[in-house]
Amino acid sequence: MASSASETPGTQRGVGQTIRTVTVHGSAFECGKMYGEQVAPLIHRNLTASTDRLRGIEQLWSTCMAIVNEVYIPGLQKYWPRGYEELSGMAEGADVDLDDLVLLNARDDLNQILPQVAHGDIWWEDIDPDDPRGYGKFLLGQRLIVNHIWQPDGDNCSSRARRGVVLCPVKPERCPDECTTAFFLGPATQNRNVISAQNWDKARRFDDPDFIINLEVQPTDDRPAMLITTEAGMLMGSGMNSAGMAVTWSSMKSQRDFVPVDHEDPQGNKIRCKPRPMLPFPFLRRMLLEGWNMKDVMDGFTEIPRHLSGNMTVADKHGTAFTLEIIPNEIYRVEPITVPFLLHTNHFLNHHSTYRIPGTADRTNMLDSARRLNAAEEELVCPKFLGNVTPDRVVEIFSGHRQGPLSLCKHGREDDLSAVKTVAFVMYNLTKMEAFVCKGPPCSGVITKSDL
C-alpha cells in the first residue's frame, strides 16, 4: 500500500502532523500482537487518558467493567471470535489486560450510557413523542427511502426506559455531538466516482493527536485487506477494504438505549437487567468492513444484539450505498431516492419510523446536528455543484466554518475539555481505491493519500 502527501485534495493548505501508518499481517492473533508491539506506549497512554476519570468513581467503574466482562467479552467470543483473537494478541503485544483493551474500544459507547448510571445533576426534558420537532426542515433536497429491515422477537431491558423523556448529562443545548458522514454516488461527482467521507469529532478531553493512526491490516485468512483510521489500541474507527467497500459512522442516541447489566440509576433505584452477549459499535463496524460484498456485510449482522443506538454508513465501488440507523431492537436502512448522495449527522433521518415506536425518542442535540446537515446540503443541492462534486469540493464542504461552533469543521475552545473538536477527516474514492486521511481538521491538516 503506497502513501504520499502529494497530489491530494487540500494539501496546498496542509500544516501540522502527517498520520502514522501501522502495518500488520498474518492471522488475527498475529495481527493483534504486531499492532500491540508497534504502538505499546501509545496504547498505555490512551488507556490512561480514557479510563482515569472512570476509575475515580467506583459506581461507574464497576458498572463499566461488568459490561465489559459479562456482555462484551462473551459477545466477542460468540459473535466475532476473530476479533477476540486479535484483541488477545494485542493485549499480549502491548502487555495490557484484555478487559482494559475492550473497555478502550468501547469507550464512546459506554460514555453514552453513563448518565443512566451516574448520580448528580441530570437535566430532564419532557417532549411530545408525536412532535417531529421540525425534522422536515432539515432535509432540504433529500428525499429518503426507509426500509425497516429488522426487529427482534420478545422484549429486552430497553422496555424499562422512561417514556416520553429525553435524558442528557447536561442541558440539551450543551450536549456534545460528533461526526458527519456522507457518500456521493457516480451521478453526483464530476468523474462519476463513488466517494465516501467523514469528519471524526470528539471531546477535547480525549484528544491527543499522537493517538490517531492508520491501521493497515493484511490478513492471511479469507478477509480482505483493510486501511482503518482509528486510535492506538482500537480495532476500528472508519475504514476501506480491498474489496472497494467503506464504512463510516456517526453517533446517535435514543430513548431505547439501556445499561445491559444490573445497576443503580441516578435516583438510586436498582435496575435489574440480565447480562447477555452483545457487541459495542466499533466491533460491529469492523465486522462490516471484513466483508467482501454487501451480502457478506449484512448476513448475520442484524441478529447481533445491541444496547445502544448509532449510525453506520456503508458504500462500495459499484455504487451501492446506504446508512443503517440502529436502535437496540430495530434497524433501518436509509437510502436517497431523489439525489445521488446522502449526508448524515447525529439525528435520525427516519424520524417517522422512530417516533411511531412506543417509548423511543431521539436524544440528540438537534441544534448542532441539524445545522451541520443544513450547511452541507445547502452546498450540494445547488445545481452548480450537483453532478460536479470533486474530491477538492468534498474537502471544502467538510472544512466549512459558516455555522461557527456548530459547523462541520470543529475546533472547540481550548479551555473547555468537553468542547468537541474535529480530530480526523477521511475520504475514500472507492472507484479508484484511494484513501485520503487527515490528522486534525481538514481545513488545516495534512491530507495523506494511500492506494489500496
TrEMBL record:
PANTHER family: BETA-ALANYL-DOPAMINE_CARCININE HYDROLASE, PEPTIDASE C45. Residues 231-440 form the Peptidase C45 hydrolase domain. This is Peptidase C45 hydrolase domain-containing protein. InterPro entries: C45_proenzyme-like, Peptidase_C45, Peptidase_C45_hydrolase. Pfam families: AAT. It comes from Lasiosphaeria ovina.
